[in-house]
Design a protein that fits this description.
about 500 residues, alpha/beta, Alpha/beta knot, Aminopeptidase, eight-stranded mixed β-sheet, 16 helices, about 30% helix
Length: about 500
């Protein structure tokens, strides 16, 4: 069980390091760790393993049993050293009783074959009463040594600081001691430094940091840092931390606690390729891409599932069914995918997610699209082809949508996500992506209609920069529906 660092200054943490190169540990006398030792916040002691040898050559190693390269550190020498440093009785039962009675004492053995040392490990070990680091060399310490002390009731942790091999455990011990000691009360001058740093409780890498001058070698800092608006600064830093983690350590994103992600976190993650489905413990990878004709069947299936969400409480079921059967058919999506006047994007999970019904549960053929489509968006540009026809399925522009001279108008015809993806951040990510693509293809003004009772959608569009300009009446399967009409210029906020 992980233990947090102590929240009050008490007895100093005892740190013993056993090594054949005690001078290696002089680095710990420097900086904050050295100051902490000088102020009595930690009790740091370095021991020379050769002090427990009994031959004139002070031998600490021997050849490996069974053959092989290198040398192995002798268990008898390590046993003498650890018995003394740990103050363990020779009798096994007495040793276990002594270990249990003397607080939490941990024997740490740095080794490339150990478990990975992380910030969580550092937090856990900072809660111990004493730590003993056994720094091996050559091919390592005889494996019976940690086995023996574990049997005597000592908590033994064999730990690696990374997927590489060093010449000895001293460097790893220094790394771990510094990571642990800085968590102790009083070691850092500003305890808030522990809150926002990489690998902290947030599970993210730290955001980029800057100082004066605000312009250096043609590089300027984010103006929000100079705004004095602490809420905006905090949000910007949070977004940058998320973006940096996605870019550099996507493995950390898979472990983010979904319960700790707010709406803006989810939107930022979705824009960067990570969505948080309803009920999911962690974000999952998602891709937003242009649709192809192969997606037509999957898109029709998705449309049939999602369209009722927009109007099922105000439009008769038979009208909804009729509208889907007439308008949201594979042929429509296939045509859109091949029409350069249509920007059609899909969102797909990059791995199946238990509990989410996707298009993969329908028939999949060689001509169908990906099995995990969970959202789509479409912008239809008001342009006529050589035959004088507009894009298939485009709605007449309402009178309340007034374009300036030279503006190219497009209808944001579709933005739908699977019900399992509500609140995942995928909807704003889709709106942003299709708006950018429409702008890149020449569309300068977007309009949309959403049912007057669909407050959830209206709220999402407002956050995306749309503003209400009027209303319209729209026919759904033979039944009139009343829509709110909203617009935005594509160049705003992109």
């Amino acid at each position: 069980m992980s233990a947090a660092a102590p929240d009050a200054v008490g007895a100093p943490l005892r740190l013993d390091v056993i090594t054949i190169f005690p001078d290696y540990l002089r680095a710990l006398d420097l900086s904050l760790i050295g100051r902490a030792a000088g102020e009595g916040l930690i009790d740091l002691r370095v021991h020379d393993l050769r002090g427990w040898t009994r031959d004139r050559h002070r031998t600490v190693d021997d050849t490996p049993l069974g053959g092989g390269a290198g040398m192995v550190m002798k268990p008898d020498v390590w046993g003498e050293a650890l018995d003394e440093v740990l103050s363990l009785p020779a009798d096994a039962a007495a040793a276990r009783e002594s270990a249990a009675a003397r607080g939490r004492r941990v024997l740490v053995v740095p080794t490339p074959s150990g478990g990975v040392f992380t910030q969580r490990t550092a937090e856990d070990l900072a809660g111990a009463d004493s730590l003993v680091f056994a720094c091996g060399r050559y091919e390592g310490i005889d494996a019976r040594v940690p086995e023996h002390y574990a049997s005597r009731g000592v908590e033994v942790r064999e730990l690696s600081i990374g997927d590489y091999v060093l010449n000895g455990g001293e460097v790893a011990a220094i790394v771990m001691i510094e990571a642990i000691a800085r968590l102790l009360p009083g070691v850092l001058g500003n305890p808030e430094s522990l809150v926002e740093e990489s690998h902290g409780a947030a599970g993210l890498l730290e955001y980029p940091v800057h100082t004066r001058p605000t312009r250096w070698r043609d590089l300027e800092v984010d103006p929000v840092l100079l705004s004095g608006d602490h809420a905006r600064i905090a949000r910007s830093r949070r977004d940058q931390a998320i973006a940096r983690t996605v870019s550099r350590r996507p493995d950390m994103i898979t472990h983010l606690d979904a319960a700790l992600l707010d709406h803006e976190d989810r939107a930022t993650l979705a824009a960067l390729g990570w969505a948080t489905p309803v009920g999911a413990a962690h974000p999952v990878p998602v891709r937003i891409r242009p649709a192809t004709a192969r997606d037509a069947e999957a898109l029709a299936d998705l449309a049939a599932r999602t369209f009722p969400d927009a109007c099922e409480h105000v439009i008769a079921p038979e009208s909804i069914t009729r509208h889907i059967a007439t308008n949201l058919v594979p042929e429509l999506f296939s045509t859109w995918a091949g029409d350069e006047r249509v920007d059609l994007l899909v969102a797909e999970l990059l791995a199946p997610l238990p509990g989410i019904r996707t298009s993969g549960e329908t028939e999949t053929t060689e001509t169908s699209g990906g099995p995990n489509l969970v959202g789509y968006a479409a912008v239809l540009r008001e342009e006529h082809d050589a035959a004088g026809e507009p894009p298939l399925g485009i709605d007449p522009r309402p009178a309340c949508v007034r374009a300036r001279p030279g503006q190219v108008v497009g209808e944001l015809s579709k933005v739908y996500v699977d019900s399992a993806m509500r609140g995942s951040g995928l909807t704003p990510a889709l709106i942003s992506a299709v708006t950018r693509q429409a702008a890149a293809h020449g569309t300068s003004l977007l309009w949309l209609g959403t049912h007057i009772t669909n407050k959830r959608a209206q709220k999402a569009y407002k956050r995306a920069g749309f503003r209400q300009v009027g209303t319209r009446t729209y026919n759904v399967g033979g039944q009139d529906a009343h829509d709110v009409v909203m617009t935005r210029r594509t160049g705003e906020g992109l």
